[in-house]
Write a structure and sequence with these properties.
alpha+beta; 2 domains; seven-stranded antiparallel sheet; five-stranded antiparallel sheet; 32% strand; binds adenosine-5'-diphosphate; binds magnesium ion
């Protein structure tokens, strides 16, 4: 097989040139990083779970008319996506206080917020993805006012969808982060949900016990990350049918 061209190697995924122009292959790695990559580990099986979970959420969003970059899952670790121009913002939606919001504003983790709060961070690892305001975004031209209106409405639709899907399986969607990209259809540009939606990019707490089922398990050394992500996948009914048996050759589909 011809060697394919690597476009970008990130912390959790590698991007390869796709089979057709305008497409990319997203390969989900087992690497887990936190605190701007100060903490790093290999968590066996994480990439497989995130690939399948991200497919599940992106497909669901597509079904309710929220455009995404997802085209199809190729195998256990890879998916085909539309290549887009990523808007250099991390869009965070919060329903309950946690993490940096709790720290910044002194609100106890788990406090329900009066309404969903949308925050923007400038996507730059070197700077630690700093929080920015719409003033910065407009002044530096990272997104237009029209883009910002669309981004807000997409973020809130993703929030409603994800909150509902999670609630149905006894999980609270505390917060999440998405990335949004531009795609061009002829002369028109549209925004689509890009990157991934997975327990790496959400805070998910069991509603009854409060148990954390997301990357905080890794950040805060709370146990097995694979067990947590497997639990999310199991509840959503998307566990891979053939979990790899050690030492045996595996057919990938
Ligand atoms: N559809 C897409 N088109 C182009 N770039 C994308 C797309 N989806 C995600 N990306 C980018 O690919 C990278 C994914 O790899 P990841 O390991 O998450 O990187 P990072 O370490 O930068 O977070 C991110 O930089 C993300 O912005
Ligand atoms: Mg990333």
């Amino acid at each position: 097989m011809a060697r394919r061209k690597k476009i970008y190697e990130g912390k959790a995924k590698t991007l390869y040139e796709g089979p057709e122009p305008g497409t990319l292959v997203q390969y989900f790695k087992d690497d887990a990083t936190a605190f701007n990559a100060e903490k790093h580990d290999i968590i066996e099986g994480k990439g497989v779970l995130n690939n399948i979970l991200s497919e599940f959420f992106m497909l669901g969003l597509g079904q309710i008319g929220v455009p995404t970059h997802f085209l199809k899952r190729l195998n256990m670790r890879e998916q085909l996506v539309r290549s887009c121009e990523i808007i250099p913002l991390e869009i965070i939606v919060r329903n309950y206080a946690a993490g940096s919001l709790s720290k910044r504003l002194g609100i106890d983790e788990g406090t329900q917020l009066p309404r969903p709060i949308v925050e923007y961070c400038y996507k730059d690892d070197g700077l630690g993805d700093p929080l920015v305001t719409e003033e910065h975004i407009a002044a530096f031209g990272w997104a237009s006012q029209q883009d910002m209106d669309d981004i807000l409405s997409l973020a809130l639709r993703v929030n409603d969808f994800m909150s509902g899907v999670m609630l149905a399986v006894g999980i609270r969607l505390v917060d999440f982060k998405i990335e949004i990209g531009r795609v061009y259809d002829g002369d028109f540009q549209r925004l689509v949900i890009a990157d991934e939606i997975s327990p790496d990019s959400c805070r998910l707490w069991d509603i009854k016990t409060g148990q954390k089922l997301d990357k905080d398990v890794f950040r805060r050394d709370l146990g097995s990350l694979t067990d947590a992500y497997t639990e999310v996948a199991r509840r959503l009914g998307v566990m891979p049918n053939n979990p790899p048996a050690p030492g045996k050759p595996q057919l990938v589909n």
